[in-house]
Automatic annotation (TrEMBL):
InterPro entries: Galactose-bd-like_sf. This is Uncharacterized protein. It comes from the Eukaryota. It comes from Clonostachys solani. Residues 1-20 form the signal peptide. Keywords: Signal.
Length: 182
């Protein structure tokens, strides 16, 4: 009768050992947004983003309850959100974000844009804002090769005087190999 008890204990140990092995697997990189709090929703103060002349707003977010708001009042103003992002140097990634004009007067000659960069020097992506219906979000994507220790900078500005309010929401970075990240 001693044999069945030994067999039961061994079987339980083997199953437990197999379960522990599965826990060491890496997450699918296409399901993990490398940007933290890309929707500015949790926590509600927008952290870990660093805000410069921008703020979190509940006015017309793409995905509730919040978005980041940039209010441009003159051409000297540079409004930005910045976040350190864990990227692997030399790997390709795709940045995605949504933007919309939520107020102010848009002038095509104003040269207003959202500029994305990494560490303020590596690569640069300029999105020239177009006159779209207020509150209608547009998707923008930029694929880039990562430097080491990356800080993502999204800067909203106008080259000429303009009064413009722009929301940015649902910011994400995934490996460029992910065709349809979730």
């Amino acid at each position: 009768m001693l044999f069945p008890k030994f067999f039961a204990v061994f079987t339980a140990f083997a199953v437990t050992g197999a379960s522990a092995q599965k826990c060491k697997c890496k997450a699918n990189p296409c399901t993990t947004n490398l940007v933290k709090n890309g929707g500015f929703d949790s926590p509600l103060d927008g952290s870990p983003w660093i805000f410069s002349n921008m703020e979190v707003t509940s006015y017309k977010p793409r995905s509730s309850p919040q978005a980041a708001l940039s209010q441009i009042e003159d051409s000297a103003q540079r409004n930005a959100i910045v976040q350190s992002v864990p990227l692997v140097e030399g790997e390709s990634y795709t940045l995605r974000y949504y933007w919309t004009i939520v107020g102010g007067t848009f002038a095509a000659s104003g040269g207003c844009e959202i500029s994305a960069s990494l560490d303020n020097f590596h690569g640069d992506d300029a999105l020239y804002l177009s006159d779209t219906p207020q509150g209608t979000y547009s998707l923008h994507e930029w694929t880039f090769t990562a430097p080491a220790n990356s800080k993502l900078n999204l800067v909203v500005f106008c080259k000429r005087d303009a009064t413009l309010d722009v929301n940015v929401d649902d910011v994400s970075i995934y490996p460029a190999s992910c065709l349809n990240p979730t």
